[in-house]
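queue> holo job accepted (S-adenosylmethionine)
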Amino acid sequence: MPQVTEPPVVPGRGYLGTMLALPFDDESYLDFVEGLRRFALTSLNPVAAAAVRGRVGPNGASLNDTRRVADRLPVVGLRNRLLRSTQDMNWARVVAAYQSIGPRLEAELAAADECGPGRVELAADWEYPQYYRDVHYHRQPGGYHEDPLAGYVYHYGTKVFHLGANDNDETKTARAWETPAPADGRVRRVLDFACSIGAMTVAFKQRWPQAEVCGIDASEPLLRYAHARAARLDVDVVFSQQLAERLRFDDASVDVAYLGTLLHEVPHEVAVRIVHEARRVVRPGGVLVVHDMRQASDPPDPWEEYDRDFDSRFNGEPYAYHFVHAGFGRLLAQLFTSVTTTSGRTVTWVCTA
Ligand SMILES: C[S@@+](CC[C@H](N)C(=O)[O-])C[C@H]1O[C@@H](n2cnc3c(N)ncnc32)[C@H](O)[C@@H]1O
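queue> job finished
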C-alpha cells in the first residue's frame, strides 16, 4: 500500500494537537463556547449539586420529587441551559466550519482510504441498527453516521466537550499505558471496541508495537477518519466496520480488549450481548478493560440521579440513566475469572478471562 507522505489538505492553520485547526474566527468562537461550558461544569455544578442535595436530603427522594425541587432552582436552570446551548453552539460552528471546506476533506478521506500504513475495512451491505439510527448522540447533528465528515466534527466537537484535556490524545494515551497486559505477558492481538476516531487504537499500537491492533466501530465516517488520522500519524492499525454485539473475531483470539464508553450508549439488551461477545473473544488469561459512566450509588445520590436523567433526556444519551443502574459490575463478575473496580468520576473494570 502507498504511504501517506505529505500532510493531508489543511485549511490554512495546520493542526491543533492532533486535529485539523479551524480558521481563527471559528477557533476563537469555540474557545468562548468551551469557556462557557467550563463555567457551567466547574463553577455552577458544585453550587447546583449542593443546593439540590441540601433541599432533597442525602437519599430517599424519587427522581420525580428531585426533579420537582431541582427544576425550580435558578442555578440549576442556568447550568442546564448553558450545558445544552453550548453543545448546540459547539456542533453548529464545527459543522459549518468543516462543511465550508467539505469537498477538500472528502477528497482527503478518499485518498487516505487507499493509503497505509494500516487500512480501513468497510462492510458490504451495511445496515445501521435502528437503535443507532434513532439517536443523535450528544446532539451531534446526524449522529455518528449520517454526515460523511462526522469524524472531523466529532474530533473537534469532543475537544470542546472535554474542555481541551485531550487535544494531543493525552487522556487516551495515558489510559492505554494504564491498561494491564495479561499475566503471561503475551499480547499478540488488541481489540478496541467502538473505537470512534481511533485515538485509543493508535495509543494501543504505540503501547504494544509488536501486536496486531484492531479498532471496530459501526460508523463508516468515523472509521474512515480514524484510518486517515492513524495513517497521517504513521501508525499501522486496522479499522473494521463491525457491530460490537456481533463481532467477526474467533473465540479466544484476543489478548487485550478495551470497551470504552460504549455500554451506556446502547439499549440494555445490546449492552449485555456486547459483554458476552467480549467474553467470547478474549482468550483465557486475557484482559478486558471496561471504562464507562460511574455507577449509581446505593442509595442513589439525588444530584447524580438528576444529572444523569438530564443527560438522558437532553444530551442524546437515552440509555445512560438505565445503564448506571443496571449492575454491569455483577454481570462482569459472573463472566470473568476476576474483576477489579476503580471508581471516581468514571468507572473502570479490569477483567481477566
Ligand atoms: C462515545 S464513542 C466511544 C469512543 C471511544 N471508545 C472512546 O473511548 O473514546 C461511542 C462509539 O461507539 C460506536 N458504537 C455505538 N454502538 C455501536 C455498536 N453496537 N457497535 C459498534 N460500535 C458502536 C459509535 O459509532 C461511537 O464511535
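queue> The CA atoms of residues 5 and 232 lie 8 Å apart.
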